[in-house]
Every structure is written in structure tokens, then in C-alpha cells.
Amino acid sequence: MIVCSCNVLSDHDVRATMHSEGGPARNPGEVHRCLGCSRKCGRCMHTIKNIMNEALCGADHRHTGS
Ligand code: FES
């Protein structure tokens, strides 16, 4: 799923930055930097933060209803 339409970043791209060699990205701005781009309109910031939180908390199934 594309989460940043300005830079065409997917949720998979965001999760990959959580396992980068230089250490995990700590905020949405670092996610963009890790992926070689920069924030533009900023509409994706909330979604990226949610993906990061889910990745940091591990497989959190509380919101899936399962
Ligand atoms: S949607 Fe990510 S910067 Fe615009």
C-alpha cells in the first residue's frame, strides 16, 4: 500500500527503515531521509507514525479484531 504519494513510499518501505543498518528511523522525517527523499506535503506523517508504532510494538493484533 502506498502511504506517501509524493514520494511513492509503501508501508513496506517504512517498515524497512525500522531495520536499517544505521539503526531504526525514530520519526517520520528520518523515514524519508533513510529512503533518500524528503517530506513534501506532510499528509503521510500520521500514517507513517502509526506504521512505526505498530512495528515497534511488534505484531499488535488488538486493532484487527482477531
Ligand atoms: S504524501 Fe508524503 S509528503 Fe506528501
Major beta sheet, strand line-up:
1-2
Spans where pLDDT lies below 50 across 5 or more residues: none
In CATH, the architecture is Orthogonal Bundle
Task: Give the N-to-C terminal Cα separation.
Answer: 21 Å
Q: What portion of residues belong to β-strands?
A: 5-15%
Largest sheet: 2 strands, antiparallel
Please state the CA-atom Rg, rounded to the nearest Å.
12 Å
Helix content: 25-40%
Please, what is the average pLDDT? Answer: 88
- In DSSP terms (H or I, runs of 4 or more residues), the helix count works out at 3
**CATH topology descriptor:** Arc Repressor Mutant, subunit A
List the domain count as a whole number: 1
Task: Indicate the structural class.
Answer: mainly alpha
Shape: globular
CATH class: Mainly Alpha
Please provide the ordered H/E string of secondary-structure elements: EEHHH
Organism: Rhodopseudomonas pentothenatexigens
Family: Belongs to the Bfd family.
Protein name: Bacterioferritin-associated ferredoxin
Keywords: 2Fe-2S, Electron transport, Iron, Iron-sulfur, Metal-binding, Transport
